[in-house]
Amino acid sequence: MKMKRRKGGLRDPHFVPLSRQAVEIIRQLEPLTGKGQYLFPSARSFKRPMSENTLNAALRRLGYDNEEMTAHGFRSMASTRLNESGKWSGDAIELQLAHEDSDQTRKSYMAKARFREERVKMMQWWADYLDTLHDGGAEVVPLTKESDHGR
Questions:
Q1: Eight-class DSSP state of 127
Q2: What is the rounded CA–CA span in Å between residue 62 and residue 56?
Q3: Angstrom distances, CA of residue 145 to CA of 26, 112, 140, 142, 151
Q4: C-alpha to C-alpha distance for 132 and 136, rounded to whole angstroms
Q5: What's the CA gap between 9 and 79, in Å, rounded?
Q6: Of 100, 89, 98, whose CA–CA distance to 122 is shortest?
Q7: Looking at residue 82, what is its pLDDT?
Q8: How many other CB atoms are there within 10 angstroms of residue 9's CB atom?
Q9: What is the model's pLDDT at position 8?
Q10: How far apart are CA 92 and CA 98, in angstroms?
């Protein structure tokens, strides 16, 4: 995974556990994208990853304006739902999203292998949760003016 560059050099490699569903999608992509360095290469060069702007443009073509959804919005949505679930430690979620702690002492305790098992389980839970939403099995709570204000 290509990560943002930090001041003074490259970030350490970021471990990204993949769910069963993600692995299957990657296998299905291989005939389309080949065995190159990136699953989603830039249209201009296979040596560079697809840009966030390309993903945002695809969302616009699907009918979402930038107030409704952005590529980065998927990360925000995942962070919110993973935290709301109460199933995962905040540290594991932050590590999964490659968020760095500015507190150097705290950062030193966030070893790379730490939370590895929890993150593997978390990503499988997330994929299963998305499948549930896709299949219509999610609990939907209708919001009306009356329910919003307890009337």
A1: H
A2: 10
A3: 44, 47, 16, 10, 8
A4: 6
A5: 27
A6: 89
A7: 95
A8: 7
A9: 43
A10: 10
The terminus-to-terminus CA distance of the chain in angstroms comes to 49
CA atoms of 49 and 72, how far apart (whole Å): 16
- On the CB side of 98, how many CA atoms lie within 13 Å of its CA? 15
Q: Which two tokens stand for residue 24?
A: 């299957």
d(CA 87, CA 71): 25
pLDDT tens, 96-115? 887 665 555 555 555 556 78
CA pair distance 111, 145, nearest whole angstrom: 47
Q: What is the pLDDT of residues 5-58, one digit of tens each?
A: 444 444 567 778 999 999 999 999 888 877 788 888 888 888 899 998 999 999
Angle at 25 between CA 22 and CA 30, to 5 degrees: 125
Any idea what DSSP says for residue 39?
S
What gap in Å lies between CA 129 and CA 81, rounded to an integer? Answer: 10
